[in-house]
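User: Predict the structure for this protein chain, please.
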Amino acid sequence: MVTSEKSPKPSTKSAEFSPGEHPSTPESVERSPDEHRSPPESTELSPGEHRSTPENAELSPGEHRSPLIQLKKVTFAYPGREPVLQDLDLAFYAGQRIGLVAPNGSGKTTLFHIIMGLLKPDRGRLTLFGQERRRERDFVEVRRRIGLLFQDADDQLFSPTVIEDVAFGPLNLGQSRTEARTTAEKALADLGLADFADRVTHQLSGGEKRLVSLATVLAMAPEVLLLDEPTNGLDTDTRQRIVEILNRLDISFILISHNLDFLSQLTEEVYTLTAGRILTDQPMAAHQHTHVHAHGTVPHEHR
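Assistant: Here is the predicted structure, written as C-alpha cells:
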C-alpha cells in the first residue's frame, strides 16, 4: 500500500488491483420445493448481531444472511497504553445505516482503521465479506469494496488538482486515464462539483475539501462506507448538503458523529462505544427536536 508523504495517515486509495478485478458477493442459492432445508442450530448472537433483512432482500424460511463486516472479541492497544478496544463485537449487514456516538479517544477511528487493515488488532477475529482477514494482502479486496472517509480531509487529498485526486482511485482499479477521468467527472457531477475538476486542491475551503474527499471515495464505487465525522467543522449549509447526498445513495454505511440531529436524518440506529466495546442492546434513538435558548441563532451541537 502506497502512502503519500504529504499525508500523516495511510490512504486507502493506494491499494493495487488487477485491471477489471471486481469481487462479487455469492448469490443466494435457489432450492427446489422438495429439497429439504435443515433449520439452523440455535446460536447466541454477539451484541448488535441480528438476523433481520433489508426490505429489498427476500430470504426463504430458515435462510441466514451473513454480515458484511464482523468483528469478534477484537482487542487493540497503542504501544504503552491501555487497550482502546477490549473484546469488541460488531456485526454489520447489507442495507444497514448505523450511527456511532462516543467521546473523543474512545476508539471510534481506531475501529474504522482496523476494519480497513490499517491497524492490526492484538487479538480477535475480523471477517469481512465472508472471509477472515489477517494479513496485508487480505485487505486488498476489502479496500476496493469499503470506502473510508477520513476525519481530516487533508489525509485524503494529496494531488495538485481535484480531478487528479478523484481519478486516483479508478486508476488504481485498472481504468485507463480516459476512463478514470470520465469516472472522476461523473463522481464530481453527482455531488454538484462539476466545476471543481481543475481547481487546485490545497486552495479549497474546509467544506469543499470534505465534499471532494467524499467524491474520491464514491469514485471507487464501494459497497460500504465508513464515514468518520463527515461534518466536522462544517457550516450548516454544507452539512445539509452532505445529508442530501448520502440520502440519495443506495449504500450501507457506518457513520461516526457527535451530532444527533445530523444522525437522525441519515441513520436507523445509533450505538455507542464504551470501555472498548460497542453497546447495542439498548440503541439510542436519534431524533430532531425544537428548543429555545439565548444562543439559538448560532449553529451548535448537542453532545
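Confidence is low (pLDDT under 50) at residues 1-57, 289-300.
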